[in-house]
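User: I'm putting together a teaching handout on how multi-component assemblies are represented. Below are the sequence lines for each component of a complex, exactly as they appear in our records. Could you produce the 3D structure of the whole assembly as structure tokens, so the students can see both representations side by side? Please keep the chain order the same as the input.
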Amino acid sequence: MSVVQAERTLRSATAGTSLTILGATGSVGKQTLDLVARNPGRWQVEALTANSDVDGLAAAARACNARYVAIGDEAAYPALKAALAGTGIEVAAGAEAVREAGARPAEIVLTAIVGAAGLPPTLAAVKRGATLAIANKETLVCAGPVVTALARASGATLLPVDSEHNAIFQVFDHAAPERVRKVILTASGGPFRTFSREAMRHVSVKDACAHPVWSMGAKISIDSATLMNKGLELIEAEQLFAVGHARLDVIVHPQSVIHSMVEYVDGSVLAQMGTPDMRIPIAYALAWPERIETPCARLDLARIVNLSFEAPDLERFPALALAWEALRAGGSAPCVLNAANEIAVAAFIAGKVGFLDIADVVSRTLDKTGSGPLDGLDAVLEADRLAREIATALVAAR
Ligand code: NDP
Ligand code: MG
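Assistant: Of course. Below is the structure of the complete assembly, with chains in the same order as your input.
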């Protein structure tokens, strides 16, 4: 059964739902703050976090009058403290301070930290039964069974922000999941959709970050270019909707108008569509079960004219094949896949390895670790640590 709990006590529509944003200085974080600013009084910001962006965090905290801010980098504490002097906003630094942001009593916690670094504050929010609007897919990939088990125990509600999962959530029959025949994730195909392997060999970080449709942070942009992003999303979908990997599918749809689909046993296919603007799924998760106005451009299908589809090419995009294998293997394999990918993407950004090395490092790391059981948080942390160690050595050897 899915832990996305479709029924819950309706929040007051009037005002002042408390909201924490983890990763407030990033692409998703800023778009969330944009919606907060456009809806005065609707959300009261409890806490904001960042890793090292002092100016961005301080400006955001002032603008929304946050109660608490936490920055991951401890060395940034004096500068952040100075930037918020006289505001009364509580300031803290370090990994424990970021975790504390998740533990503080906000009704909704939007998770937009990039990578497995989002796990501790996410777990803190899940443990106290909060409503989580989840953008930070890596947390569900590396520790999905732990997060969902904790959510079932605490009564936490998990709402997807990732556009595909938000689309599925909107058209999924939560009361009768057995009527779902397939959950179909759409993929734009990324900037190298039509490239040969040879052409991909020499692409730069800038090329990989130039996504044809979405404007996003560097890590997810590179994941979109390798199609690892779609692989992480398959694993994320399995955690959120629990339909089993045999009922998951991916279709490349370059226009990114259909954000995903659910096929039912009677042959009906329900899709959610919209312009590619993350403020639509963010607003849906924040206001759920209501809908609110957004400033997003409206879909003009007559102008778009064509919606096209093609099967993903697993040979040119081996990262997606690796994710499928990790999903089928289960246990620690998704955690290893995610950790190795984080190391390999960081190495690509740092100019230490080429684009094609990313999937290769992930593949070799998975070969070395195999898949073990993932029976709790300690097992997650150990699988993550070991995979990072192996992937780092593989990067160094190149
Ligand atoms: P960004 O890189 O733009 O932002 C990442 C945020 O996380 C920043 O606030 C950053 O702080 C913070 N952060 C980074 N590392 C750490 C750390 N070690 N500890 C604490 N905080 C940290 O990422 P995006 O907004 O693009 O993506 C965020 C998440 O949302 C990812 O998991 C991504 O896959 C997912 N997502 C993003 C979409 C998008 O459109 N961008 C769409 C769907 C999902 P600082 O600024 O100080 O470095
Ligand atoms: Mg997505």
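A couple of points students might notice: The first strand starts at residue 17 and ends at 22. The domain at 17-165 is CATH 3.40.50.720 (Rossmann fold).
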